[in-house]
């Protein structure tokens, strides 16, 4: 067989593999609806209940990634800074709540001692 015939066979085989393979996989892959129908009823119910919450969480995460990418720093550093900021805010809130509780206790103590 000539070289041209060998090349044509190889190109044909490559095209069948490169085009036909993904097309075959796409044809046998179930759709989202088919997968959902295969769930047991309990999983279907839970999936429907949590779907909106998960979609919102994903949207929030994507928005945070967009915000982090606007920074001059790496996304990882920006995320770390935001986590540290959240920790600092949380600790500030806890300390403020402790101070308020302490103030309330002092006021209650003064009222009790003042009434007697």
UniProtKB/TrEMBL annotation:
GO terms for cellular component: mitochondrial inner membrane. InterPro entries: Cbp4. It comes from the Eukaryota. Keywords: Chaperone, Membrane, Mitochondrion, Mitochondrion inner membrane, Transmembrane, Transmembrane helix. GO terms for biological process: mitochondrial respiratory chain complex III assembly. It is a single-pass membrane protein. Residues 82-116 are annotated as: Disordered. Residues 96-116 have a biased composition (Basic and acidic residues). Essential for the assembly of ubiquinol-cytochrome c reductase. It has a direct effect on the correct occurrence of the Rieske protein, core 4, core 5 and apocytochrome b. This is Cytochrome b mRNA-processing protein 4. It comes from Aspergillus steynii IBT 23096. The lineage of its organism: Eukaryota, Fungi, Dikarya, Ascomycota, Pezizomycotina.
